[in-house]
């Protein structure tokens, strides 16, 4: 099990980034959260198996169809036991 927090910058708000991210994370069995940031970016934390977390981080590098990803910062964190994925408002 691992946990990775990402901050994604670019055109990532108003393009269904959070909704798509949450759906894919739930389908992959990944816990954590996704939220909009006040600076226009999106922050997410993914916790689960190494493969599932890595797939979600990779997905963030492309995002949904309407997104334009400029940068993805990924930082490993200690797992906290997240088993469900939520959209934080």
Structure, described:
This protein is of the alpha+beta class and 89 residues long. It has a single domain, classed as Alpha-Beta Plaits (2-Layer Sandwich). It has 2 helices and 5 strands; from the N terminus they run βαββαββ. The protein has a 5-stranded mixed β-sheet. α1 packs antiparallel against α2. The longest helix is centred in the N-terminal third of the chain and has 12 residues. It is globular, with a radius of gyration of 12 Å. The N and C termini lie far apart (26 Å).
> The CATH topology is what?
Alpha-Beta Plaits
User: What is the subunit organization of this protein?
Assistant: single chain
**Domain tally:** 1
Number of helices: 2
In total, the number of strands is 5
Report the biggest beta sheet as strand number plus sense, adding barrel if it closes. Answer: 5 strands, mixed
Beginning-to-end CA distance, first to last residue = 26 Å
Architecture blueprint of SSEs:
Blueprint (H helix, E strand, L loop, with lengths): L1 E10 L5 H12 L2 E6 L5 E7 L1 H11 L7 E10 L7 E4 L1
Parallel strand pairs: 2-5
Antiparallel strand pairs: 1-3, 1-4, 2-3
Helix pairs in contact: 1-2
